[in-house]
Every structure is written in structure tokens, then in C-alpha cells.
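Field guide to reading this record: the first block holds the primary sequence, the second block holds the structure written as C-alpha cells, and the final block holds curator observations. Each block starts with its own label. This record concerns ABC transporter permease, catalogued under organism Rahnella contaminans.

BLOCK 1 — SEQUENCE
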Amino acid sequence: MTISLDSVTLSAGDETRQRVKRAFGRIAHFLWQMACNPLTAIGGAIVLVLMMVAIFAPWIAPFHPLVQDLNNALSPPSAAHWFGTDEFGRDIFSRLVYGSRITLYIVLLVSVTVGPLGLLLGVTAGYFGGKTDMVLMRVTDIFISFPSLVLALAFVAALGPGLEHVVIAITLTAWPPIARLARAETLSLRQADFISAVRLQGASPLRVLWRHIVPLCLPSVIIRITMNMAGIILTAAGLGFLGLGAQPPDPEWGAMISSGRTYMMECWWVATIPGLAILINSLAFNFLGDGLRDILDPRND
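BLOCK 2 — STRUCTURE
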């Protein structure tokens, strides 16, 4: 009996093509589900626009965000300056465009950090229980007992102003809800029949957690992180408003509102337009997270 090498290669190639086709099919189905929900589609579109603006900021902004033109200070919106200028004559639209980079930097870095941290602590507490659960959850309760903005203020005051310190402070205040969620999911999974079967086959606790519990907790954690992004934007803007975030002359949205509040009665655009940018993007992340919850939650199938 002979086996053709060409047929084996062909079958392997067909299998690879089938996997790629199935992956693209799942992605297309996921995008179609998002498009079917109007609010989710709007939120996803705004977030996508925010990302494109941040990436192509040098080509989108008509002026440099730091260059001053005192002859045009506090100019109202016009054809030359779409959103007007601030007290130093800097183009507000250009500063908003470059400020999107700072906002996305904070949001993405905090999300990438708090996700694994909260997931690790939550599944560990939920799976092992006992003293491990008690210690980790008491620490979590301490962090949850303080309002996130107040706790972030305390951390930034201790670390000092600066963008990196803002990221650290928000990270330290944003992980407890994710840990609580991961723990609740793990408590409902650890007594499941398939987990008991895996244990009987000799799987170590690390393998059970990594291969079976963590993948099942991921959808809920991703949804929670997406919905937390709006809170991250607001907290970062609040710290910037108080002068504890990105330092002047960086075009951070909260700092722009802070500097423009002095002229708000006469020149409304200086503070109102950055505030609208924060509002619109916060709503967009909320809409996106709400849609992901409907799509990824297996109980909605």
C-alpha cells in the first residue's frame, strides 16, 4: 500500500484553507452582529474614527498643536480654525486631534494592564478558595471601598504629576471590579462536571485554570474592560483638569477644559469642545461594551 505525498500535502493545505475560511467566517459573523445593533455600530464607528485620528494625527491636524499665535488668541470657530483658538492662539481642532493620542494611550495601556491583573487574582481566589480567597478579596474590598477618582488622586499625589503616574494610578483603581467578576465566574465553573473530569485525569490546578477556566472567563472580562474604558477616559480627564495628568503644553483634553474654564462665559468653544470630545468618546465606549455584552454572553444565544 502506497501513500502519495502529493495527496498528503494537498489535504494539509485544504485543512489550512478551511481553518482560515472558518476564522474569516466567524469574524464576518461577529461584525454583522455588531452592525445589526444601531448603538453598537455607532459606538464602534466612533471608536474606529478615534483610532484613525490618533494614528494619522500629523496628516489630519492643519496646525501644530504647540505653536502659539497670540494675534489670533481666542478666535471663534471659522474656516481657518474650525473649532476656534485658545488663549495662546493655538488651534483647538489640532490640539483635539493630537490629544486623542494621549487619551488612547491611557485607555489602552490601562486596559492591557488591568485585564490580566484582575483576571489572575479573580480566578486564583475563586478556584482555590479558603484563606487565599479571603486575603485576596479583602484586599479587593479595600480598593473598592474608595471612589475610583479619589483613590486615583491619592496615588497621583503620592507619585507626582505625569502621564505615566496617571496610568499607574488608574490601573491600581480599575482592577478590583474585574477581579470580582472573574472570581464569580470561577466559582460557578469550578464545580462543573467537565472540570471534575479534567481533575480526575490528573490535570494540575495551573492547567485547569489556564486551559479551561480562564478561556471561559475571558468574554465577561473583555466586556467589562470595554465598558470600563469610558470611566478611564473620565478619570484621566478629571486628573488632567486638576493639573495632575499630562503637563502643559501637552494637548490633553481634561487640561484643555481646565485652561479654558476662565474664558468660558465669553469664549464658550475653548472649554465646551474638549468637553464634547470626552462626552462623545465615553458614550461610544459604553455603546460598544453594551453591544459586546449582547454578542459574547453565551446566555444570550
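BLOCK 3 — OBSERVATIONS
Residues 54 and 101 are 5 Å apart (CA to CA).
Residues 15-66+76-296 form a domain with the MetI-like fold fold (CATH 1.10.3720.10).
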